[in-house]
Amino acid sequence: MIEFTMPSLGADMADGTLVEWLKKPGDQVKRGDIIATVETQKGLIDIEVFDEGTIEKLMIDEDTKVPVGTLMALINPEKKIESQKAIPDITEEPVIQPTEEKAIPAFLTENIHIKASPLARKIAAENNIDLLQINGSGENGAITRKDVEGAIEQGKLVQGKEKSSIVAEPIKEQNISNPVRSAVAAAMSRSNREIPHYYLEKKIDLKKALAWMYGKNKELPVQKRLLPAALLIKAVASSLKVVPELNAVWDTDLQLKTEINIGFVVSLRNGGIIVPAIHAADLKSVDEIMENLNDIIPRARALRLRSSELSDSTITITSIGDGGADLVYGIIYPPQVAIIGFGSISEQAFAENGLLGVRPMVRVSLAGDHRASDGLTGSRFLVALNNHLQNPEAL
Amino acid sequence: MIREELEKIIFQLLKKIAPETEPSGLSPTENIREALGIDSYDFLQFIIALDEKLKIEIPEEDYGKITNLNSLTDYLINKQK
Fold first, then answer.
1. In angstroms, what CA-CA distances link B39 with A319, A323, B17?
2. Which of A180, A348, A377, B36 can pair with A373 through a Cys bridge, CB separation 3.0 to 4.6 Å?
3. Which residues from B are below 8 Å from A when comparing CB atoms?
4. A128 and A46: one domain?
5. Is A218 on the interface with B (CB under 8 A)?
6. Do A223 and B48 touch (CB under 8 A)?
């Protein structure tokens, strides 16, 4: 039997609140399927499974705060072909039954289970609304945001502190007003405490890279236009193939990673950052990376990421963007061993072959974990990065 | 389309991108991106939104010509002709 446990979605995560199971006993799952949604400091996260099999048992009630590593479900790995026939035998009631909750074994829910969207639960919890007293208008009688908002407007359901166990407990953090801030604080404090950083910098001429990008953008519809960030991500991924020591994690010793998953820092409009992973960036084209960014940035800002996007990064890139600071020195996100910082791209005087010219330049910094690598390794990486950016068509 | 109508559309689109800001409070010569804290990604979303709403495609080399409200509306009026 495979044990499905609460995954760690970053060095800063101690627990998460199970909001909703999206699979039930008897359901078949395969790698990448979303099994549950979990509320964390980084928002409502879709939790994926990494095994194939049939859900045997769900061990945790919804609306429960669960520490990382806790057993949440059992998955039977046997691929039984007859399982499709078997499922109706197990649950006698047809699956489409509106009151399907009854099919969930009793050990699961001692409390009465109420169908409500995560957003509805959140709003209800924030406003001290008892979901028991609301009639859902959604699918199968599920309570929707509208229902809760309607109830708030009517004002009649606002209760005192008395809380039924169905109301999601708000996650108690030191700073409840901005949980993302707390998450950043925890991870960065740990990094600063544990990781002996070394820093390197290189100025890189982006004339060729940007000319190549502008050329491509002229042919692309406006929706598919590339941003320099896509190019920089790809160049970093390609350079990591030359210097694989920086694509790694430190866990008592250096563990190199074969997949190159680039964490890309996304700023949230109300403060704080979130770092989703661009998976296998070395195997993607620049256009594919841009597509990935177009998908992931809005979801990161809405705090709606998948678990693998939060936990799989093997290195981080932070980019200031145009008009901002010339250079950024990053702080490594543990357990990673390096972070690459790109300052804003600006026109600078540039000398080449005894001649002075003006070029779009970027100052690139590398912060490395000195337990895991040395300055020479970092320097090799920055040289490789420069070389890749001088040959953009080969990226 | 007259200037006022264009400005109204610009404000609506900017508000969508930076919901916590008040684009209609922008002064005519203020740098839009700096004033509203719009990064390269959001700016591209704004260009896409203008293209979809007004059917005006702004090429990348013209980004420098549309930094404030005055220059942006002038640019769009010109392009409509």
1. 11, 9, 10
2. A377
3. 18-20, 33-34, 37, 39-41, 44, 47-48, 51, 57-61
4. no
5. yes
6. yes
The answer to whether A245 and A373 are in contact (CB under 8 A) is yes
Phi, psi of B61, deg, nearest 5: -70, -10
Classify residue A108: in a domain, yes or no.
Answer: no
Same domain, A136 and A195: no
Q: Is residue A173 in some structural domain?
A: no
Number of domains in chain A: 3
**Confidence check on the interface: ipTM exceeds 0.90, yes or no:** yes
Residues A238 and A370 in one domain: yes
Mind listing the pLDDT tens digit for each residue in A255-282?
A: 999 999 999 999 998 888 999 999 999 9
A322 touches chain B (CB under 8 A): yes
Overall number of domains in chain B: 1
Q: Using CB atoms, pick whichever of A229, A267, A323 lies closest to residue B34.
A: A323
- Asked whether A46 and A8 are in contact (CB, 8 A), the reply is no
Q: How far is CA A381 from CA A163, A280, A284, A326, A332, in A?
A: 56, 18, 20, 20, 16
Q: Indicate which CATH number applies to the domain containing A149.
A: 4.10.320.10
Residue A110 belongs to a domain: no
Chain A residues whose CB is inside 8 A of the B60 CB are: 214, 217-218, 225
Distance in angstroms (rounded) separating the CA atoms of residues A54 and A29: 6
What residues does A253 pair with on adjacent strands? Answer: A251
Name the residue facing B44 among A218, A227, A269 (closest C-beta): A227
| CATH number of the domain bearing residue A20 | 2.40.50.100
Chain A, residues 356-375, CB within 8 A of chain B, namely: none
Q: Do A23 and A71 belong to one domain?
A: yes
CATH number at residue A231: 3.30.559.10
CB B21 within 8 A of CB B59: no
pTM for this one? Answer: 0.75
- Domain of B72? 3-80
Q: Answer yes or no: do A227 and B39 touch at CB < 8 A.
A: no
Q: Does residue A273 sit at the B interface (CB-CB below 8 Å)?
A: no
Distance between A262 CA and the closest CA of chain B, angstroms = 18
Predicted pLDDT of residue A179: 83
Range of the domain at A200: 184-394
Same domain, A234 and A124: no
Q: Is the peptide bond before A335 cis (omega within 30 degrees of 0)?
A: yes
Mean pLDDT of chain A: 84
Question: In this complex, do A227 and B41 lie within 8 Å of one another by their Cβ atoms?
Answer: yes
Whether residues A99 and A131 share a domain: the answer is no
Of A214, A223, A321, the CB nearest to B40: A321
